[in-house]
Amino acid sequence: MERIQSWTNQNSEWNAIIQQSVERIFRHQQEDGRFSFYCEVSPWANAIAIIVAYLCHQEQYALITELKRNLLRQQNSNGGWSLYPDQPFHLSASVLSYFALLLAGHPRNSTNMQQAESMILEHGGLNKTSSLARAFLAVAGQVPWSTLPDTHIELIFESPESLLSIYDFSVPMRVHMPSIMILSHLNFKVAVPESCTLRHLILPGQTFPKERFSVRNDEALFACKKFLFERLELDGTIAGYLSATSLFAFACLALGFKTSDGPVVSALSGIYSLVYPSRRTLQQQMFTSDIWDTALGLQALVAAGVNPQNQRMIRAATYLVSKQHQGISDWVHHAPKAKPGGWAFSGDNTHYPDLDDTAAVLKALRPFQKNTMYRHPWLRGARWALAMQNNDGGWGGL
Q1: Domain count of the fold of the chain
Q2: Are residues 352 and 250 both part of a single domain?
C-alpha cells in the first residue's frame, strides 16, 4: 500500500512539473503562432555586433552599451570567454570580445582586460585564431588578409559540374565565402583608433604572411556581388546569419557603397533585428531559431498530452506550414529533380532549407495530417527530404 501511495504521489509531482512546462512553452508563443526563444550561441554575437557598428561608423548606436555589458558579464573568472558554459577558454571568442570592448571604450589597462590579454597570449595570440575571426580582424586592419587561406575569387565562376565549385561547400561556409572573396581580393580595411590596435596580442617572433596583391578582377567581383544580392532576404540579411550579413555589409563598402546606401542600411537593420529582449537585458543573436523552437515545442506539447486540435497548437502548426520553402535554391544543383518543400532553422531564411529542421517539422506536423491543410505540405516536405539523400544512403545536415 505504501508503494502504491508513493508512486501516486510521485506521479502527481511529475504531472505538475509537466503542466508547468506546458504553460512555460505556451508563454513563449507569439501572435503568429511560433514559439520564440532566445537562441544563445556564444559571446561571438555580442562581439560581432559591436565590431560591425563601429566599423560601419555607428559608434553612437544605443544598443552598444547593452552589448558591452553583456560581454563583461560573459567574461570568465580566468579573463577569457568561452563558447559554452563548461569550456575553460576559447581563443577566437576571447580575441573578438576583447577587441569589441576596446572599440566600445572599455579601458585597456583595466584588470579584466589585462587578464584577457594574458590568456590570449598564453593560447597563441592572433596567429592562432580561426579563419572567421581573422576575417573580422582583417577588415579592421589588425591582421593582413594573407592570414586567411587564399579564396581565389575566380572560384565563383566554376559551375556545379566542375571538380570544385562554391556549391561543394556547406551552406554556413557558402554564405560567407563570396563576401570574403571580395574583401580579400580588394584588401579592404577600415581604420580604427590607435588605442584599439591589437599588435600587443601577437607573440614575439611571430609574423604574418606578406600581403597578397592581385590584379583587380572586376568580372569576378561582379559575379560575387550578384551571388550575394540574389540571396538577400527581405530583411536585408544573408540567410538570417549575423556573421554572413556583417561580412556582406563590409563587402558592400569595399565595392564602393556608403553606409547610408540601401544594401548597407538594410543589412545593418537586419543584424539589429536579431536582438532578443531577455529578462535581464538585450542580447544579440547569431540567428533566430523560431522554426526549430516551434517544431520541438509542438513535439513536446503532443508528448505531454496536449490535444493537437487545441487552437494554440493549430496556430503553431499553421506557422510552420507558412514557413515551408516554395522556391528553388542552391540545393537544386546536386538534386535537379527535387521540388521545393524543406524548412530552415530560422523563419527569416528562405533560401537555405536543411534536413534536420525539415525532419523536426515533419515530426511536429504528423499529428495534424488528418487536415489536408497540413497533409499536403507534409508530403512535399517528405519528398524533398528523400530527394536530398546522398548516393551512399545517408543524409547531410545542410
Answers
A1: 2
A2: no
Spatial CA neighbour of 230 closest among 337, 329, 118, 296? 329
Which three cell numbers, joined as nine digits, stand for 52? 560591425
Same domain for 278 and 301, yes or no, is no
Q: How many CA atoms lie within 13 A of 80 on its CB side?
A: 22
Predicted local confidence at residue 278, as pLDDT: 72
Contact 282, 63 (CB under 8 A): yes
> What does the mean pLDDT of the chain come to?
93
* CA distances, 76 to each of 65, 73, 115, 212, 376 (Å): 19, 8, 10, 37, 50
In 3D, which of 197, 234, 241 has the Cα closest to residue 45?
241
More confident residue, 211 or 188: 188
Does 137 reside within a domain?
yes
Tell me how many degrees the CA angle 225-227-231 measures, rounded to the nearest 5: 115
Q: Are 318 and 240 in a shared domain?
A: no
Q: Which of 222, 220, 272, 268 is CA-nearest to residue 248?
A: 268
Is 89 in contact with 82 (CB distance < 8 Å)? yes
Domain limits for position 321: 27-38+288-387
pTM of the model: 0.93
- What pLDDT digit, counting tens, does each position of 304-360 carry? 999 999 999 999 999 999 999 999 999 999 899 999 999 999 999 999 999 999 999
Residue among 47, 71, 217, 216 at smallest CA distance from 137: 47
For residue 12, being part of any structural domain is answered with no
Read off the pLDDT band of 7 (50, 70, 90).
Answer: very low
Is the residue at 151 inside a domain?
yes
**Of 284, 307, 325, which closes a domain?**
284
- Quick one: 156 and 275 in the same domain? yes
pLDDT attached to residue 213: 79
CB 133 within 8 A of CB 95: yes
